[in-house]
Specification:
It contains 18 helices and no strands. By secondary structure, the protein is mainly alpha-helical. The longest helix has about 30 residues.
């Protein structure tokens, strides 16, 4: 593997390694060890206390990494790279349990599928005061992409970026090798032509869904939507379990008004538990765009039962029900689910 880790075998070693990395502000690395420690929690002498400690550390690191992903998303939005932004925001929601951070990511994701790329607003990402009762930790300040690059070497920066991917993608990215990591960081730093050439060279050596996905993103950034879709199709044929490919295809279909294809992709994602929260919200939004209000109501009603979807689903339901003059139901949803956190 490109990054090596000295695996120890007991809970204490995992925790101590995580604490050491945490003290160095290497939060992505620390999180990996805390997750390993959680798997060994039954070997701890005081399981309950240690469980609470690890849960807190995982919450803190998850929120910090989520904030970093939001910063990356905002950077992508400034250059109209909506697919890369959605990728980072989706990962932010996977990581964060802080309400304010989640709302920030949800607000940036809450865009009608057919909107033009440059119509996305960044004003919603301004920091809002948080309620101490709504978060397990204090909200941390968003670190800018420039600041992140300045305090980390290339290996740390790469690992930070890929460790936020869902399992097993994070491990697969780390195993891609040094040349891939170099190309990935070049793409991340907007050196697209050089990165593209390196990815193409790697592709001649190994037909791989991850490389195809990264090439698809670069084609999208260059405005080549057809080539982007071709790369994604090839990637999915190679590995139908790559969740990033599916959510990107769904976004691509939605942007071009190909709603039936987007619906099929999103239903596949939900059935296979790929980014279920984000796929569900996107599906409901597409139903609204198609005028299928009953389908949207069904999706968002189910979303009320999912903690990560509850608020945004309630907001969508209130809007849909109001347009149908079902004011009594809309009022009930608003009072029940949107009454505020304090």
């Amino acid at each position: 593997m490109f990054f090596t880790k000295l695996f120890s075998r007991d809970y204490k070693s995992y925790r101590e390694k995580g604490d050491n990395l945490f003290s160095q502000e290497r939060y992505a690395d620390a999180r990996v060890y805390y997750l390993d420690a959680m798997e060994k929690i039954d070997t701890a002498s005081d399981r309950n206390d240690e469980y609470d400690y690890l849960a807190d550390r995982l919450s803190v690191t998850g929120n910090m990494l989520a904030e970093m992903n939001i910063a990356e998303a905002e950077s992508a939005l400034r250059v109209d790279n909506i697919i890369k932004a959605r990728e980072h925001l989706t990962l932010s929601l996977e990581l964060a349990d802080d309400v304010t951070i989640r709302e920030k990511a949800e607000a940036l994701l809450a865009v009608d599928p057919g909107m033009e790329l440059n119509s996305m607003t960044l004003s919603v990402s301004e920091k809002k005061p948080s309620c101490s009762g709504c978060s397990s930790v204090d909200t941390v300040n968003t670190a800018s992409p420039v600041a992140i690059a300045e305090i980390m070497d290339s290996e740390q920066q790469f690992q930070l970026l890929v460790n936020t991917f869902p399992y097993p993608l994070s491990q697969r990215y780390e195993a891609m090798g040094r040349e891939f990591a170099s190309a990935y960081l070049l793409a991340h730093d907007d050196q697209h032509e050089t990165a593209y050439s390196l990815f193409k060279e790697l592709l001649t050596e190994n037909e791989n869904d991850i490389i195809l996905y990264e090439l698809a993103l670069l084609e999208y950034r260059a405005g080549n939507r057809d080539d982007c879709e071709k790369y994604l199709d090839r990637a999915v044929k190679l590995n139908n379990s790559n969740s990033l490919c599916h959510i990107t295809l769904a976004q691509l279909y939605a942007e071009s008004g190909r709603y039936p294809e987007a619906v099929l992709t999103l239903k596949f994602m939900i059935d296979h538990e790929f980014f279920v929260d984000q796929a569900s919200v996107m599906l409901g939004d597409i139903y609204i765009a198609q005028g299928e209000t009953e389908g949207a109501i069904e999706i968002f009603s189910r979303g009320l039962q999912a903690p990560a979807q509850k608020k945004i689903s309630a907001e969508r339901l209130v809007s849909v029900l109001s347009t149908l003059n079902r004011s009594e139901e809309a009022s009930f949803i608003a009072k029940t689910y949107l009454k505020g956190c304090c």
